[in-house]
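dumping this here so i dont lose it
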């Protein structure tokens, strides 16, 4: 899980969100939430989306080179479509580790799932994690699952993980907290439509 930063048209400073490197069909991409890389004022992809990693004492600078989001999220704003898959490159030849993905995951109440993100602190940002069983009350109607967690701004776009056949895989991203369901963080659950986002990159 990493932090990305970006600029929107009305910004005087950089915003940040969470993301993760993933493997899809043998290639590496960056996965996040659509609302994390979209300028709501201009209705276009955010500008200058970047990442900075500290690896073995060296700083690696990466930039997002392409963003694919579901047009239905732009048109309808439904959380189930709040997915973004991005291409990227680093200034050096650095190759980040990328987790395996699953796009046909059907969560069950007994599953153990986890979420990760970068949370805003008073003086600095910190990595946070929550582990638990998924709340499936909105799965059928909205294709999202809830995880009991108290997390602050910045975690949106972070990964949702589940173990599938004993292997930890990313199966969605953090999308939102909901006023009608306090104490929960809600995540998309990837399906074939999310997988198809890579075709436009």
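and the seq i came up w/
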């Amino acid at each position: 899980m990493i932090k990305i930063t970006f600029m929107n048209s009305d910004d005087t400073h950089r915003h940040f969100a969470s993301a993760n490197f993933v493997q899809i069909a043998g290639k590496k991409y960056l996965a996040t939430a659509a609302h994390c890389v979209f300028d709501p004022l201009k209705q276009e992809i955010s500008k200058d989306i970047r990442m900075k990693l500290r690896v073995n004492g060296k700083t690696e600078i990466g930039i997002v080179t392409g963003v694919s989001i579901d047009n239905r999220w732009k048109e309808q704003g439904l959380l189930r479509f709040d997915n973004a898959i991005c291409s990227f490159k680093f200034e050096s030849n650095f190759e980040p580790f990328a987790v395996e993905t699953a796009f046909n995951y059907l969560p069950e109440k007994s599953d153990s799932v986890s979420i990760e993100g970068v949370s805003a602190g008073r003086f600095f940002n910190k990595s946070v994690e929550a582990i638990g069983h998924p709340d499936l009350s909105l799965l059928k109607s909205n294709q999202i699952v809830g995880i009991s967690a108290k997390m602050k701004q910045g975690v949106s776009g972070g990964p949702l993980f589940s173990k599938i056949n004993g292997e930890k895989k990313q199966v969605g991203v953090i999308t939102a907290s909901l006023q009608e369901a306090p104490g929960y963080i809600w995540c998309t659950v990837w399906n074939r439509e999310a997988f198809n986002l890579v075709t436009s990159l």
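The domain at 100-191 is CATH 2.40.10.10 (Thrombin, subunit H).
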